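[09:14] KT: can someone run the structure on this one? pasting the chain below
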Amino acid sequence: MIDETTARDAVVRAADELFYTRGVQAVGMDAVRTAAGVSLKRIYSLFASKDELIVAVLHHRTTIWDAGLATTSERATSARERILAIFDFLDAWFREPDFRGCAFINTHGELGATSSAVADAVREQKRTFQEYVARLVADVGAPAALAPQLAILAEGAQTTAAIAGTPEAAHQARAAAETLIDVAMTGRG
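[09:31] RB: done, structure tokens below
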């Protein structure tokens, strides 16, 4: 019998893949059980409800998102490039063969109106991303008002890339971000 941490990880990873490719509402707990190789009884001992599992998947996705941003940002040589690295990260992600858009936006679209726990988890991820962007904007010495503008560009690029089925939105958003940064920095010294 596998330990609790291993079982929990297997269930979260299996649910993540299934929810992302098929949609949260389209996936039943039987499908999660089969994909994870963990009994339903064990799954429900780990997660009291499907909503609780969905929130765990969203937290797992947050960890992946944060790590991807951090890794891409590490290659940047300046504060400005760390901001633009967001869009480089998006470009690489959009080119992955299994890209289906933002799991947070997708899940909120499916359940945000009916599950406060899911809505809260999505809002938390979006809030922490905005705070991350705000720190980068502060590091470059730009006005704080630039941060939400850049965050909106990143969010819009994710939705556009998913719907259009092309990664070009990352390049377009990056070019717009460069313009916004340049305009924001005009007159700063």
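[09:33] KT: thanks! Residues 1-47 form a domain with the Arc Repressor Mutant, subunit A fold (CATH 1.10.10).
[09:34] RB: yep, looked fine to me
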